[in-house]
Amino acid sequence: MGFLFFSFALRMSHLAPRDIPVVFNRKTREVSLCVLGRLRFWRFWERVGIDKVITTSGDDLQARSYKIMQLTGEAARDTHVLRLLWGEARNPRKLEGIALIGYLGWYEDAALWRLWEHIRRYMEEGGPPIQQGESLRTSGAGKLPELPPEVIAAAGGPALSVEEVARLANAAGVACALHRRSFAL
User: Fold this and answer.
1) For residues 3 and 24, which has the higher predicted lDDT (pLDDT)?
2) What does the alpha-carbon distance between residue 180 and residue 156 come to, in Å, rounded to a whole number?
3) What gap in Å lies between CA 136 and CA 89, rounded to an integer?
């Protein structure tokens, strides 16, 4: 039993994906959201990966900020999360799913709403895929899940390398530099 618990804890901390990609395709105005499979306690040999990818219209998504109480072991603090909600195709008023985007915002949600405004401007107004001077963050210990080939193809090909993103973020004409590709969070 100790082996199973150690295996489960190891997979949770080091082998489970840290980030769950969301692909925003400006050309088709679609958003592809990944749903991870469950980590099973008894099947210690299985890795967690993408269970399915849901592609929906960007116009059907709604962004919401939620305030939660986070207990850290030392203190309790207010934390904000930004979520995308979408409804069923037949009945849009019935919730089909929720996806977490961005990161945890401590004490306020202003930075999360700036992120959403950047995404909105990218999708609706042809804004830049990355702001000037910004860089990609690392994913931590877990590996990013692999997206299905059809999602990658619809987005215009594989993601940009770290060097390409750095070059775009430092270029003067960032606003028009990446029309052929989508970006992922």
Assistant:
1) 24
2) 6
3) 34
Contact 58, 31 (CB under 8 A): yes
**Could you tell me the pTM of the whole model?**
0.69
Compute the Cα dihedral for 28, 25, 120, 68 and give only its sign. Answer: positive
Question: In terms of DSSP bridges, do strands 22-25 and 183-184 run parallel, antiparallel, or are they unpaired?
Answer: antiparallel
52-96: pLDDT as tens digits: 888 888 888 899 999 988 887 788 888 888 999 888 888 878 888
Residue type, 3: F
**Total residue length of the chain:** 185
Half-sphere exposure of 50 (CA within 13 A, CB side): 18
Spell out a b/e string for 4-39, using b for 16 or more CB atoms within 10 Å of the CB, else e: eeeebeebeeeebbebbbbbbbbeeebbbbbeeeee
Using an 8 Å Cβ cutoff, are 122 and 26 in contact? Answer: yes
Cα 144 to chain centroid, rounded: 10
Tell how many helices (H) and how many strands (E) occur in the chain.
4, 7
Q: Which amino acid is at 23?
A: V
